[in-house]
Input
Amino acid sequence: MTDDQSPRRDSARGADQAYTALGYLISGMLIWGFVGWLVDRWLDLGGIATAIGVVMGVALGVYLVVKRLGA
Output
């Protein structure tokens, strides 16, 4: 009986990892993009800091995904 449920648990675990990775990427992009936007508003840079913040957030999100979910 427990053998019948193991593929279901494996797919649920994979889905959890996928949602975790997606959450890291989106939250990093949003948080660091917002920080960049605040720096833009403060220093009147015309959007450059926002773009840098978004790229930095994605890079940090990828780093966290690899560190946390990598083998």
Remarks:
- The two ends are 30 Å apart (CA to CA).
- The helical segments are 2-43, 48-69.
- The mean pLDDT is 88.
